[in-house]
Design brief:
Length: about 425
Amino acid sequence: MQTYHIWTIGCQMNTADSERLGSALEQLGLTAVPRPADADVVVLNSCVVRQSAEDKVTGTLNLTQPLRKKRPDAVLALTGCMVGPRTEELQKRFPHVDLFLRPQEFEPLLEVVGERLGLDWEGCVGALAPQRPDVATYVPIIHGCDLMCTFCIIPYRRGRQVSRSVDDVAHEVELLATRGVREVTVLGQTVDAYGHEGDDLADLFARLNDIDGLDRIRFLTSHPSYMSSRIIKSVADLPKVCEHINLPVQAGDDDVLRRMRRPYTTAEYRDIISEIRDTIPDVTISTDIIVGFPGETEQQYENTLQLVDDLRFDKVHGAAYSTRPGTIAARTMDDDVPQEEKQRRLKGLETLQEGILTDINSAYLHDTVQVLAENRKRGSWTGRTRGNKLVYFDLPETADCVAGPDLTGQLVDVRITRTGPWSLAGVTA
Ligand code: SF4
């Protein structure tokens, strides 16, 4: 057994989990391969946050059936949010899968791989930080969620909130910095709820801010109920913490928020946004919104549009509600907004946001912004500003060439020459 393949779908937490599992497998001597057909260990890291994601996982699982026949000795595992505490039903549906692992439950797989290789995995696997990380990398700092939003399946799959210690996270980030990482995004389902033995997210930021070689710190995803003045101030004060906050509002109507069990009102949410904007110069803010939640009236949807129009976010991750079996909403509410109506509302939200973003981004024209160069695609470099704006850029002297200096991991000043709703473009200044 020498090779592995991990297929990943879903949020940044799944990406981070897959990287960490890959790191563990590599420490056991396995090599990553791009095709599952060539792998001795195949892992599917699943997401069920929306029906479309779950359908993709099911389709991919079905595609692995012929592989099972061809390679009876290969190990096939399913992990991620599709796997809850009880796996009987999954075992019945997918009998060709060897192992069902809850999110971050790597041990049973490492044990099987270790046995086949004649290795004691616990003696072989050390820190789970990725071996060859990208210059911008995710670091999970808090697992699970203690809230119970009625539409969400995550607390049932990832369990209750558990934070890693500041020391543990800092040592991992130090290691990543020595491996070339310039930007970390610390992750949690409710990242601003981070807390370990009296330390909060602001304390963690202060510690990470001192790490040599690291240029930028980001954080995802925040929850309005945990966003404290202390955290906001630390974003303003610490030079490496980027001025970007993702703060999901989910709906712009108090009655919908109550039925979603989001424990804040729209007025409270607006107050937090005001405090963030008053405290952090040049901050950018993104949000998540669900339209077509059970019982959402036209007026309630209009209230959401009004909130978006008023607060002018730098990004809105919009989604049409879809019932997730096992959630409170699925058990107690009637999914009564017709599918076509949900799509109409989503389109309306996206159209509004596109206009807002066109306007916001046009203000960057002729500005010089700092970009972390991440990679080169079709001749142009891509990277992000501190405010998380995607930028395509060229070096003036190599704009028409395929080759040029390798800028990966460098902070580059870019003069913006073109703007659009979804990205900026320019040349190095
Ligand atoms: S805060 Fe709500 S939406 Fe976010 S993970 Fe927890 S339950 Fe799900």
